[in-house]
Amino acid sequence: MKKAFRVVFVIAGVIVGQVAYAQIQNSETLLTINNTPVSADEFISLYIKNTKTTGAKIDKSTLDDYLNLFINFKLKVQAALDAGIDTLSSFRNEYNGYIDQLAQSYLIDQKTLDALTREAYQRMKEEVSASHILISIPETVTGADTLKYYQKALEARSKVIHGEPFGKVALTTSNDPSVSRNNGYLGWFSTFQMVYPFETAAYSTPIDSVSMPARTRFGYHIIKVHGRRPAKGQIKVAHIMVRVTPNASPQEMESARQKIVEIHNRLLNGESFAELAKKESQDNSTAPNGGELPWIRSGQIIPEFEEVAFALKDIGDISKPFQTSFGWHVAKLLDRKLPGEFEEMLPEIKNLLARDSRTMIIRTAFINKLKKEYGVKEYPAETAKHLTSLIDSTIFKGEWKVPSIKANPTILVAKGLNYPLSDLLQFISQNQQKSRNHSIQSFIRFIYTDWVNQTIINLEKSLLPQKYPEFKQLANEYLEGMLLFEISNREVWTKASDSVAINTFYENHRDKYTWGEKIYFTVYQTPDSKIAQAIEKALKKNPDINPEVLVKKWNKNALHVTYNQQVGFPDNPIISGYTQWSSGINISVQNDKHIVVHINKTTTGEPKELNDCRAEVIADYQHFLEESWIQTLKKKYKVNINVDAYNRLLENHNN
After folding, report:
1. Strand order in the sheet with 29-33
2. Where are the extended beta strands (E) located within 16-84?
3. Can you give the pLDDT at residue 417?
4. H or E stretch including 589?
5. Distance between CA atoms of 356 and 330, rounded to whole angstroms?
6. d(Cα 41, Cα 28) in Å, to the nearest integer?
7. 57 CB contacts (<8 Å, ≥6 apart)?
């Protein structure tokens, strides 16, 4: 079965639905299965969650039924463990994947996450217009070596501050490849459209002011803010484009213009925008979808297109033809949405945060908090001395091998645990592809920091079950849910898909699969009311007459009567109320046709063929396999119920 289906099964199962952990108040053993204890708390928390009876009194008979289901569930889990399912590498990999996902919500600094979320929401409500100058820094340059680039950025800022036009300084100084086209102007943008340090500098700089150098992964930026405005939100537009290549001749450019004018006129005359886009648009990425573009914000599309698209006021408005660097366009406004309230925007913000560099800020804050909690001691200088003699340029080719070492000193201490040099060397061997462009010394600094951070995260992850009982319970539920799925698949579902076994089960239980009341009837149709009355009269006189014989006399020269014989059930609308019909005959008129319906016979208890009841047979066969399996498990494993604990549990909950 596919992984996704397993997740659904775990969540939707009768016993193993994801359960919110209840604070343990009674950890006494409720029952043992094969000498494995099960606490009263585990049982009652599952019961409350799955039956949604929080705060309500528990009926004993209902709880008894649930206890039986719970025991069956635990028996199956024990069978899965005995079968070694939990030791399979495929099972462990899938389970560890679930646990990694579960752990993510515990491995963050919530305070930092909340602050960044609120900050992003506030920035979403405003757009900034800015220009920049980029002083790029080679990836191999780190630490104090970046100072000269910082000084160069300051020099550029000084020129602007002392009156030189920003665009002129950008043209002569900026390393941004687009500066020759835009003089450093970036247009309007909002949050999540620039790298975070750049965004923060832009939002922190007053209008008509120039920022101090802001460091990003690209280098140092000098930013001039030209303006701010309330966010325009997002728009959904479609467009039709007639492409104009950069080297097009004047005749080709005029031909493209005339083509878009013709398309625009056809739109004004009522032709479908989507259909015209599919036929005429030369934007191959959007034409098949009726010209529809993804949701766009300011700054996400070329300025000349943005200006026209955002100027459309009402849903359905179509622009006049306009030109961009790609060609000629007409655009249609499909939808618009402004920033909503915080709670409304929260899912979108979380999704954007998860794909943004802000995640590193959250991770760093979390690691720093753990370092204090665990009393972490780092030894970067000593580590660098060891690594300098152990690492060579093969590290950048992916060919470096872990060397033998005479000494294996401790290079990290966390929560009283000593981590030796050999651990770092193994980490380097597995991650040597990460930093191809570093010098060896910068690589050593980077890899040690990376290893320390990952080691601390792994330590915290290993301690989650101890620190957070709800995590431990959820992890166990994932484990048992997956075990239940796998063992049930082996013992029930796979067997229940065997066509030979299904057929044998059906043959052994044929008497169970019968029809309820079935009605056999004939429907006659004719445009002539007199013929309909004659048919009724003939049927009353001879109910068993062959329909072919009955209609033959009216169809000698032309087809005046048609008929068809059917089998149905009482809920069939054609024979609704048939028990009240005189002589089992009913006449009605539909669409100028006279319809005579005659009940030929009714039966009860006719046997069903396998194809008529396959789903029912399979369900019954699965139930048979399940029950047989449970009985086998109950004989194999000893179940002891602590009756006193069970009664106390019921009494305490209801008081």
Report:
1. 36-39, 29-33, 639-641
2. 29-33, 36-39
3. 97
4. strand 585-590
5. 33
6. 8
7. 653, 654
The answer as to CATH 3.10.50.40 being correct for domain 234-337 is: yes
pLDDT below 70 — which residues of the chain?
Answer: 1-26, 52-56, 434-438, 655
Task: Report how far residue 303's alpha carbon sits from residue 324's, in angstroms, rounded to the nearest whole number.
Answer: 9
In the chain, the amino acid numbered 514 is: T
Please state, in angstroms and as integers, the Cα–Cα distance from residue 89 to each residue in 81, 84, 94, 142, 491, following that order.
14, 11, 9, 42, 21
Sign of CA dihedral 138, 141, 143, 146: negative
Classify domain 126-230 by CATH number.
Answer: 3.10.50.40
**pLDDT value for 654:** 72
C-alpha dist (Å) from residue 281 to 23, 55, 241, 300, 334: 62, 62, 5, 21, 17
Exposed, middle or buried, 194 (CB in 10 Å: 0-12/13-18/19+)? buried
pTM: 0.70
H helix runs in 431-498, sequence order: 440-467, 469-488
**Length in residues, the chain:** 655
pLDDT at 649: 84
Placement of tokens 């020269």 in the chain: 557
Structure tokens at 19: 């359960």
CATH of the domain spanning 515-604, picked from 2.60.40.4070, 3.10.50.40, 3.40.50.20, 3.30.70.1170: 3.10.50.40
Nearest to 48, CA basis, from 74, 20, 69: 20
Is 486 in a helix, a strand, or coil?
helix
- The 10s digit of each residue's pLDDT in 67-97 is 999 999 999 999 999 999 999 999 999 999 9
Residue 76 has, within 13 A of its CA and on its CB side, a CA count of 27
Q: Which CATH architecture has domain 1-106+469-513+615-655?
A: Orthogonal Bundle (1.10)
Task: Classify strands 234-243 and 219-230 as parallel, antiparallel or unpaired.
Answer: unpaired
First to last CA, the chain: 45
pLDDT tens-digit map of 230-283: 998 899 999 999 999 989 999 999 999 999 999 999 999 999 999 999 999 999
What tokens appear for 103 in the block? Answer: 């752990």
CB-hemisphere CA count at 13 Å for 160? 29
How wide is the angle at C-alpha 209 spanned by C-alphas 203 and 214, nearest 5°? 55
Cα 632–634–636 angle (5° rounding)?
Answer: 70
Residue 93: count other Cβ atoms within 10 Å of its Cβ: 9
